[in-house]
Each structure stands twice: as structure tokens, then as C-alpha cells.
């Protein structure tokens, strides 16, 4: 891609971008959110048609003028978007050939189902997915859905595969499988471009790494020996060396001995499968001024624990004892949990956290409207003042607090979500994947904020699937696996190995008991 | 100047309404069929649309709160009208007691819907479709399939009289009341602006502020001159004004209103922020039932009869008003003011076409097209803004 410039109205999203991908390599594209990576890939795949940008796309030494996605697919360029484009109530095979149906020899309007399912099975074998192609998409996990997308891409005679954050919603296990699949395709001669925020994966898989910043390509690093360090990549992304990805707390900060939140023998059953225990005898303690990490694989029951604790927002037949400040409390509903000083910042900010169509200000005050109202009548001016203060404190980048929150970038949305819960004045904050899908700069700001919270005497329970983050931020770490706490370790003793070890050692046990 | 332009942009619907009014006025004048703005016709428009506005306000809260609609309001209007007829006409019960029973019945019907929709989570489309058949059937049963009239004159007076009662001093009294209202309005607006400045809050630019309120005041005084030249202020207008002001206040200025917007925008987020979403949904339907009862009482007074076929198609008028008024079919977006303007828009369309003598079948077709294109324009203009 040569000298690509793309403008949206007055905003220049890409400025004179050059990208050279060699045949048969895995080329990683990294950069902060909003740097222009996805825009660049949309230009390449014909989503933005020829003429809407400046510059040339050269594929196989030939200048390409794609007017629609089909044009680029004909050349063998296939893009898999971060948000999977699968239809939940159609089968794997139907999804795979959607828009590209295997038709019968009689007529182009009639689908040849036997051939469809036959070919689907072959493709599934190729990507190593052992599923019946008749299975509905909604019944398989995200990791497998990702593989279906790849199989779909392969079915289009793909020569250049573009993957936009393919592992963002996968656990470590599925991510690993996916990367191996990409490596396998590489050995068979396929070229891939991979966009990712997970730097360890990039240094593992990529042959070259191009850094995009503010709509321009900054540099291309050669990683054929896998010797480019994560810090080197970050330095390129943010334009400065981040000496420490995790900010230090002030040296005077001490964790008090006072136990702020204590949960004993917390047991929760699955809402649809009453026999299944989602949490089994979970007991944790959080002290004032402490950041406690809750590590584990996806599906370990961490979010379920947080939600069930937070006013029984999840699960049935919940039992166990909760103490705040040493006094037994019961959170019958969300309101009582908020009143008692608990806040739950969800992992799914778009689905469970924000009202995207509403302004920033009203999102910020939603959990504590009492503070900006008198006798149930809102004081909108006061609300505006509060929202502006929070915007300033959390460095939310927006034109006005009356802007809809849906128009903000992921990092700024996350800050609005945090602002909402800070306004509720909690004592204990449960942060569920607080930095998922946001860029390095915003992550750092969120870490600083977590430090500020505990320095002011609050307590934080941080659920995170990113082990470096858990290790970098926590004072103490609980490890959860299959609904149980399987390890507790102070920061000084915790390593990635010891956490993974605790998980792996306990993973088998359950099966033995069940048999 | 840019501030005024911005204001026009924000009030594009109102401008569309004015344009439609001018369009009809020109046509009506050129065919020499009188005037849209004759004192008599102005009063008529208010009468003809009173029930639509009341129903649209209730419907709006359902649309905001869950992106859903109540298909049964027309049938509820018929049933409650029937009950009112049986009580007041056939049995000659006390009219106030009868009205109280009717309002209570509206609340019970709303609670019936709300229970199934909010707590049992049956899709509202199905529950209210069932209600549409159920209550229409009950209305037929209560009335035995016949229309009953006339209603006691004491009751009719409550809804169809004018302030002042005598026609001679209509103009002067109307003007006096209007000026008093304008004075209260000006005082209120000034007070809020001054207190904002005092507290150091942000205020809108002076030009936009003056422009906006001068237009409102001019519209109020203009309407009052028209009303004064007829019979004075219709009582029904007072009722509508009270309903609109109360519900606009709830939507804009109260905690409940804010929570309804959040519920419609993202129910899960609202729930996790401590909003009792089930109860809020339930109450929205109870409120719709209550307002349906109010509309029923207005309707029987206007037609001076209780008919089993009353209220047919009212639900569609109310729904149409909300969507023309900019409410989103997905929930979370909409304003009371918009719904009222939407209702008046439909009303002016009906009225204008009737005066012009447009065939009733054509009137329906035109209304259908207008509803579609009003929403199309709304959606397209929003798209352009976000790009």
C-alpha cells in the first residue's frame, strides 16, 4: 500500500501511509486505538471504495481498484473483523457459505445442501475444529466461532488473510490454538496481516511488525528472529518509552489491617442448570487500601462471583456470608449493594455498562441520581457541574459532557463507566476486566486511577485475564478455577507460572470427582 | 446568528409543522374555503386532537422505556367509555364517583398489562394485542352492542365548556388570563437564568435565549387572540396543558424520568446501576392505562355517547404521533414535546384535508405517506450528523 491518505470530512484518519507485506509472512499491525489500523485494513479490503482515498494498493505487482468487498475477495484478500459477522441461529455450514452458497447444477438459486455440508466438514478439519457443521453458531464458544470465520475465509481461496484483533475475546488456550493455526497457514504459503493489542502474541507470531500512530506508519520492525521486545513495540506505539507499564503507588501508601469486605463460603448455582455450582465455597477478604487481583481463565466463575455478590444480579440459590467493615450485610438487590458501598464496573461496557444513546453526563450520574436531585427532581445544572468535574479528574477526551457516550472511543467509554461508579462513592470497587480492548495510554491512566482510589482508602477487587496486569497492579492475588478459589498469594510470591500452575493443578480434579 | 441557526436545526420538527400549516392555509385560502386559523377552526383542532395528545403522552413513555407500544389503547377507550355510559346514563350514578371508577379501571387494566409484560416478561406486542381483542370484546358485552346517550349535561359541561362561561367578555378575559400566564412564564424563565448565573453555571447565549422565548410568547398570545375571538379558552385545553406539563416535567426533570430513558437505552446497564427496571416498566403500563381512561372520559364527552366501536384506530394515531415526534422505535429516545407536536401535526393534516374536502380514503393514504417520510427524514438527518 503506497501513500494512502483517507479523510472523513475534515478529519484525516490516514496520512501518507505506506505498508509493505511480503508474501508468505505474518505481518502485525500495532498501534493505539484510533491510530488508524482498522481504517487502513478497510481501505485494503475495499470497504472504502477506490476513489474515496488517495494512494495506491498494489497486490501482486498490480494496482488494484476495489469498489466493493467482493472485488478484493476475488483477488484473495479476506478480512475477519473484530466483531464476528456470524448469524447465531444458522448452522456452521450455512454461515460459512453465506453470500457464497454452494448451488446446485440445475439453478443458481437452489442451494446444494449435501455439497455445502461436505465442503464445510473439510474446511472445519482444515482449521482443526471438531464440530458437526449442522451445529448452530450460538451453541459454540467464541473461540470456535473465530475458527469458523477463518474456515469461511479459507473457503474463499484466501491468499491474504486480515485478522482484526482475533484473540481479543479468546482465553489463553484458544488464543494459542489460533496462533498455531496462523503459523500453519504460513507454512503452507498464506500471507496474513494481524491487528492485535496483545504484544506477547505479536512477538511470538509475527515476522514483521508495523507500528501505526496518529494515522501514519511510524516504523516497521523486523521480527524474523522473534527478538523485538514488548517494550520496544510500546515505545513505538506511544512515541515515548514507557519506563513502567504499571505506575507505582506513592511510597507512603500503606494497606490497613482493617478488613473492608469479607465474603465467606459463597456458593452460587447456575440460573438454568440448577445442579451446577458456578461458585463453590468462595471466601475472600479485601483490606482497606488494597488492590486484590482475581486471576483465572475465562469461564472460571469470576464475573459470576462479582455479579452474584453485587445485589444478586446473577445466579440462583445463592448462599454465603458477606461482611462489610466487620458487620454482616445482605445485598438483596443492586440498590442495597450500592448503598452499602459496593460498586461493580462491568466487563461489558457496551452491553451492561453504558447507555450509549444517552449523554456522557447522564451516564455518569445514573448510579447515584440522589446526589444530583432533590425530592426526586433533578438539578440538571448541578449534574452538569459534577459531570464536568469527573471529566476533568479522569481526563475523558470529549467535546462536551452532553455528547452521546456511544461516540467516544473504548478507552474514554471505560473512563465514563468508572466515573459513574466513582460518583456513587463506593468503599469497595469490583473492576471486571477494566482495561479490556483499550489502548496502552488509556490503560496506564486507568492504572493510575486504581492507585488513586486505594490511596484514598478504598479497596479494589480487580478481575483480569491478563496476567501481567494482575501481577503488575495487585497487592494480593486470588486464583479462581472452575468456580473455586484455588490459590492465594501475595504479590511477592506470585508469578505467571505460579498462577497458571494453580489453575492447571486443579483443573483435572473436578472430573475425577464427577466420575 | 449561528446560535439561532442551531436552534432551528434542533427544532426542525416544529418548523416542519409551521410549514405544513402555511401550506394548508395557502391552499385553503386559494380555494376560498375559509381559513385554518379562523377562531372557530382553531378551537376545533384542539377538540379533535385532545385525546390523541393524551394517549400519545402515555405511549411515549412506553416507547422511551422499552421501545414498545400498547396496541390496546383504542379498545381501552371503548371499554372505559362503555362503563362510563352504563354508570352515568343507564344508572344515573353520581358523575364524580363514576369518573373515579373509570380512572381506577384504567389503572387496573394498565396493571394487568404491566404485570404480564414487566414481571412475567411476555412480549408487550402480544400482551397488548390480546388486550386489544379482550377489551374490545368486553366493551361490546358491557354495551350489549348498542350506543348509549345522552350523557348528563353536568358531565358534558366539565369537558366541553369554556373559560369564561359567557361569550361577551371572552376576548378580554382570555387576554387577561393569557397575559397572566405569560408573566408567570417570563418570571420563571428569568428566575432560572439568574439563579444559574448566580451559581456560576453555564447559560445559553443571550440572543438564542431571547429569540426562543419571544417566539414562544408570540405563539401563546396569537393563539389566545384566536381563542378569545371564538368562545374563550376551552376547558379541555387546560386539561391537555396540565397533562403535557406534568409529563414533560417527569421526563426531563425527575429521577424517574431519567431512569426511564436509561431503561429504554440499555436495560442491563440500568439494572446494574440500581434501577428497579421491572417496577419501572410496570408503572409505565399503569400510567398508560390511567391516561387511556382520561382519554376515554374526554371522548365520551366530545361525542356525547358511549359506543362499542369508539376509539378504533386511536392506538395508531398515538403511536404515529410519537414517531413523527422523533421517538426511536428502539427505545431510549423521544420527548413529550415532540410527541405533542407530532399529534398536532397529524391533527393539522386531518383538519386541513377535511376543510379542502379531500376524500376520506385519500386522507388515510396521505397520512400513511407522511408518517413514513417524517421518520425517514428524521433518520436521515441523524445519520448526517453522526458522520
Q: Could you give a short description of this structure?
A:
The complex is a heterodimer of chains A (515) and B (387). Chain A is an alpha/beta fold and 515 residues long.
What does this 3D model show about the protein?
Chain A contains 18 helices and 22 strands. Chain A has 515 residues and is an alpha/beta fold. Chain A folds into 3 domains: 2-238, 3-Layer(aba) Sandwich (Rossmann fold); 256-341 and 426-445 and 457-515, P-loop containing nucleotide triphosphate hydrolases (Rossmann fold, 3-Layer(aba) Sandwich); 351-425, no CATH class. The radius of gyration of chain A is 25 Å and the shape is globular. With 387 residues, chain B is mainly α. Chain B has 2 domains: 2-163 and 235-386, ABC transporter involved in vitamin B12 uptake, BtuC (Orthogonal Bundle), CATH 1.10.3470; 165-231. Chain B is built from 16 helices and 2 strands. Chain B has helices at 2-10, 12-30, 39-66, 73-90, 95-119, 124-143, 153-160, 170-198, 206-229, 235-253, 255-265, 267-272, 277-303, 314-324, 336-356, 360-386; strands at residues 162-163, 233-234. Chain B is globular and about 60 Å long. The A-B interface holds A 8-9, 310-311, 313, 333-335, 337-338, 344, 346, 351-358, 362, 365-367, 369-370, 373, 376-378, 380-381, 384-385, 407, 420 and B 196, 199, 201-202, 252-259, 261-262, 265-266, 268-276, 328, 332-333, 386-387.
Amino acid at each position: 500500500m503506497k501513500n494512502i491518505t483517507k479523510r472523513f470530512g475534515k478529519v484525516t484518519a490516514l496520512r501518507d501511509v505506506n505498508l509493505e507485506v511480503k508474501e508468505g509472512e505474518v505481518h502485525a499491525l500495532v498501534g493505539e486505538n484510533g491510530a488508524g489500523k482498522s481504517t487502513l485494513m478497510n481501505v485494503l479490503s475495499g470497504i472504502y471504495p477506490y476513489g474515496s482515498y488517495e494512494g495506491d494498493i498494489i497486490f501482486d505487482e498490480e494496482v488494484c481498484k476495489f469498489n466493493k468487498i467482493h472485488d478484493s475477495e476475488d483477488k484473495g484478500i479476506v478480512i475477519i473483523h473484530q466483531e464476528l459477522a456470524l448469524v447465531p441461529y444458522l448452522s456452521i455450514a450455512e454461515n460459512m457459505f453465506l453470500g457464497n452458497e454452494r448451488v446446485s447444477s440445475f439453478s443458481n438459486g437452489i442451494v446444494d445442501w449435501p455439497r455445502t455440508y461436505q465442503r464445510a466438514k473439510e474446511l472445519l478439519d482444515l482449521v482443526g475444529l471438531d464440530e458437526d457443521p449442522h451445529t448452530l453458531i450460538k451453541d459454540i464458544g467464541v473461540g470456535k466461532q473465530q475458527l469458523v470465520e477463518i474456515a469461511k475465509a479459507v473457503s474463499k481461496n484466501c491468499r491474504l488473510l486480515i485478522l482484526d484483533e482475533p484473540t481479543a475475546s479468546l482465553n489463553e488456550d484458544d488464543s494459542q490454538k489460533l496462533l498455531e493455526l496462523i503459523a500453519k497457514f504460513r507454512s503452507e504459503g498464506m500471507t496474513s496481516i494481524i491487528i492485535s493489542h496483545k504484544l506477547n502474541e505479536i512477538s511470538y507470531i509475527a515476522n514483521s511488525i508495523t507500528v501505526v500512530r496518529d494515522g501514519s506508519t511510524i516504523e516497521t520492525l523486523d521480527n524474523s528472529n522473534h527478538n523485538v521486545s514488548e517494550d520496544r513495540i510500546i515505545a513505538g506505539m506511544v512515541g515515548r518509552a514507557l519506563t513502567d507499564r504499571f505506575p507505582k503507588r506513592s511510597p507512603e501508601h500503606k494497606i490497613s489491617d482493617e478488613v473492608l469486605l469479607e465474603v465467606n463460603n459463597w456458593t452460587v448455582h447456575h440460573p438454568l442448570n440448577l445442579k451446577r455450582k458456578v461458585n463453590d465455597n468462595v471466601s475472600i477478604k479485601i483490606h482497606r487500601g488494597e488492590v486484590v487481583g482475581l486471576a483465572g481463565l475465562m469461564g472460571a466463575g469470576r464475573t459470576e462471583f462479582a455479579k452474584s455478590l453485587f445485589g444478586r444480579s446473577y445466579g440462583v440459590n445463592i448462599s454465603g456470608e458477606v461482611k462489610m467493615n466487620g458487620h454482616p450485610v445482605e445485598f438483596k438487590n443492586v440498590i442495597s449493594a450500592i448503598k452499602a458501598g459496593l460498586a461493580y464496573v462491568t466487563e461489558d461496557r457496551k452491553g451492561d455498562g453504558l447507555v450509549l444513546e444517552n449523554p456522557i453526563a447522564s451516564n455518569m450520574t445514573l448510579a447515584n441520581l440522589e446526589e444530583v436531585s432533590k425530592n426526586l427532581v433533578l438539578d440538571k445544572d448541578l449534574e452538569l457541574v459534577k459531570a464536568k468535574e469527573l471529566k476533568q479528574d479522569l481526563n475523558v477526551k470529549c467535546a462536551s459532557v452532553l455528547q452521546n457516550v456511544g461516540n467516544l472511543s473504548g478507552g474514554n467509554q471505560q473512563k465514563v463507566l468508572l466515573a459513574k461508579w466513582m460518583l456513587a462513592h463506593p468503599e469497595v470497587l469490583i473492576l471486571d476486566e477494566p482495561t479490556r480492548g483499550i489502548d496502552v495510554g488509556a490503560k496506564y491512566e486507568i492504572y493510575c486511577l486504581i492507585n488513586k482510589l486505594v490511596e484514598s482508602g478504598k479497596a479494589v477487587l480487580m478481575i483480569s485475564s491478563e496476567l501481567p496486569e494482575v501481577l503488575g497492579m495487585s497487592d494480593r492475588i486470588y486464583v479462581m478455577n472452575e468456580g473455586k478459589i484455588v490459590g492465594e498469594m501475595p504479590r511477592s510470591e506470585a508469578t505467571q507460572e505460579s498462577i497458571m500452575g494453580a489453575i492447571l493443578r486443579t483443573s483435572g480434579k473436578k472430573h475425577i470427582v464427577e466420575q | 446568528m449561528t446560535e439561532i441557526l442551531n436552534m432551528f436545526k434542533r427544532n426542525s420538527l416544529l418548523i416542519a409543522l409551521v410549514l405544513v400549516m402555511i401550506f394548508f392555509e395557502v391552499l385553503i385560502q386559494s380555494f376560498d374555503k375559509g381559513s385554518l386559523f379562523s377562531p372557530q377552526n382553531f378551537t376545533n383542532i384542539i377538540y379533535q386532537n385532545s385525546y390523541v395528545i393524551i394517549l400519545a403522552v402515555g405511549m411515549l413513555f412506553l416507547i422511551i422505556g422499552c421501545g414498545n407500544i400498547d396496541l390496546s389503547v383504542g379498545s381501552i377507550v371503548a371499554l372505559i367509555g362503555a362503563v362510563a355510559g352504563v354508570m352515568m346514563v343507564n344508572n344515573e350514578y353520581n358523575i364524580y364517583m363514576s369518573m373515579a371508577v373509570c380512572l381506577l379501571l384504567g389503572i387496573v387494566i394498565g396493571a394487568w398489562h404491566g404485570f404480564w409484560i414487566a414481571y412475567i416478561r411476555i412480549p408487550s406486542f402480544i400482551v397488548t394485542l390480546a388486550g386489544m381483542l379482550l377489551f374490545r370484546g368486553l366493551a361490546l358485552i358491557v354495551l350489549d352492542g348498542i350506543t348509549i346517550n345522552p350523557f348528563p349535561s353536568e358531565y358534558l359541561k366539565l369537558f366541553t365548556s369554556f373559560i369564561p362561561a359567557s361569550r361577551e367578555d371572552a376576548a378580554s378575559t382570555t387576554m387577561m388570563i393569557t397575559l397572566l400566564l405569560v408573566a408567570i412564564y417570563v418570571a420563571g424563565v428569568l428566575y432560572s437564568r439568574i439563579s444559574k448565573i448566580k451559581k456560576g453555571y453555564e447559560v445559553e447565549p443571550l440572543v438564542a435565549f431571547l429569540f426562543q422565548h419571544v417566539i414562544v410568547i408570540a405563539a401563546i398570545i396569537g393563539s389566545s387572540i384566536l381563542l378569545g375571538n371564538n368562545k374563550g379558552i376551552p376547558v379541555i385545553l387546560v386539561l391537555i396543558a396540565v397533562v403535557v406539563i406534568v409529563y414533560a416535567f417527569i421526563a426531563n426533570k425527575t429521577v424517574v424520568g431519567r431512569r426511564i430513558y436509561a431503561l429504554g437505552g440499555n436495560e442491563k446497564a440500568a439494572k446494574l446501576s440500581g434501577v428497579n427496571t421491572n417496577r419501572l416498566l410496570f408503572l409505565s403500563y399503569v400510567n398508560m392505562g390511567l391516561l387511556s381512561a382520561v382519554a376515554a372520559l374526554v371522548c365520551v364527552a366530545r361525542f356525547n355517547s358511549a359506543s362499542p366501536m369508539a376509539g378504533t384506530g386511536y392506538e395508531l394515531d398515538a403511536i404515529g404521533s410519537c414517531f413523527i415526534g422523533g421517538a426511536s422505535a428502539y427505545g431510549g429516545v423521544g420527548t413529550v414535546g415532540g410527541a405533542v407536536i407530532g399529534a398536532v401535526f397529524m391533527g393539522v393534516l386531518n383538519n386541513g384535508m377535511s376543510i379542502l374536502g379531500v376524500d376520506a380514503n385519500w386522507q388515510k393514504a396521505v397520512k400513511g405517506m407522511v408518517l413514513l417520510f417524517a421518520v425517514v427524514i428524521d433518520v436521515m438527518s441523524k445519520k448526517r450528523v453522526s458522520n
